[in-house]
Each structure stands twice: as C-alpha cells, then as structure tokens.
C-alpha cells in the first residue's frame, strides 16, 4: 500500500488538472490562470469523506495509467488528447462517487491541512 500522502497528492494533482482542463474546455479563449485557492471545507460528513476516499483510489489508478500513456505520446496533439481523456475519466469518477469536482478539491485541501481528516480517509481506504 502506498503512503496516504502519496494517494492524496496524486488525487489532488489529478483533480487540479481536471479543474484546469474543465475550465479551459468551457472557455478556450480564457487566459490559463490558476483558480484562486478556496478556503478548505470545515464541515465534511462521513459520507462525503468516504466518497472522497473511494474516488481518490480510482483517480490514482487512472493517473498512473494515463501517465504511462502520456510518456508514450509522440507529439503535442497526442499528449493533449491523452490528457483530455484522463481528465474526462477522473471527472466521471468524482461525479460517479456523488461529489462534484469543486467539492472533491475542497475536501482534498481540507484533508491535506488536517491530520485528523487525513487519518480518517486513510482508515476508509484501508477498510
């Protein structure tokens, strides 16, 4: 089993990539600024935390799979296509878990900043 921080980091990195791509897909002419960091959620239910844990596990697998495909891409267009496919899959996983991407990202930020939440997610992943 990988360390929990690696799981959370991979999930958040992937989620950050999702939100940036989702934003770019909505308005291709928009500048590529990073969104302002939202304040972390403070009222997270057990159900939301479980949804986050479940989605994070799947996102890590997708991220690993698509990282390999990205490294094998031969040109910029292929790389962009692989990134878009990965983002679409990750967004689908998050939404299938019952969360939206913004909530997933907010929970991820809260988990990174709160060791108690991190422990709860780790226990959910291990069970």
UniProtKB/TrEMBL annotation:
Signal peptide limits: 1-24
Organism placement in taxonomy: Bacteria, Pseudomonadati, Pseudomonadota, Gammaproteobacteria, Oceanospirillales
Bias-annotated ranges (Low complexity): 20-40
Record protein name field: DUF4168 domain-containing protein
Domain DUF4168: from-to ranges: 45-121
Region (Disordered): 20-46
Keywords for this protein: Signal
Keyword tRNA processing: no
Organism, as annotated: Halomonas tibetensis
